């Protein structure tokens, strides 16, 4: 992978001057290369990782295993693209193993996530089954530790 892309993947807020000094090129070269990556669809966007616990934001997230029937001529792509377009869907991946798609969704509460699954996702023609796993607490997000000290202390096991 291009060194510029590696630097941006690790910290997209680095100013072009710092990137340029690390790569031994000019600011203009960095700006031009970033612009070209954006135009070519290599860089699709920039995201900030937010510690929502510090803001006391109450969002419910779930990972949903989805089994689907591949379509003639379209395989999994057409159905996966349709699912990915829902506002509730944060990410959607084709997977190997016991299910076909892994869909990450967000909602304001359990009811909104369960409504999405039962009323929108499960009713799509070609969706065979779904299994929903609710995310309880993040420890690491996109390579970033979410804070807090961790103890090596073992929890007592009750009989």
Describe this entry's structure for a reader:
Helix 2 (16-23) packs across helix 3 (27-39). The model has no long low-confidence stretch (mean pLDDT 90). The radius of gyration is 20 Å and the shape is globular. The protein has helices at 3-10, 16-23, 27-39, 52-55, 77-84, 110-121, and strands at 60-68, 89-94, 101-107, 127-134, 140-141, 144-145. With 159 residues, it is α+β, with helices and mostly antiparallel strands. The protein starts with a helix and ends in a 14-residue tail after the last strand.
Summarize the structure.
With 159 residues, this protein is α+β, with helices and mostly antiparallel strands.
Topology record:
Blueprint (H helix, E strand, L loop, with lengths): L2 H8 L5 H8 L3 H13 L12 H4 L4 E9 L8 H8 L4 E6 L6 E7 L2 H12 L5 E8 L5 E2 L2 E2 L14
Antiparallel strand pairs: 1-3, 1-4, 2-3, 5-6
Q: What low-confidence regions span 5 or more consecutive residues with pLDDT below 50?
A: none
Cα gyration radius (Å): 20 Å
Q: Mind telling me which CATH architecture of the largest domain this is?
A: 2-Layer Sandwich
State the fourth-level CATH superfamily of the largest domain: Lrp/AsnC effector binding domain/regulation of amino acid metabolism (RAM) domain
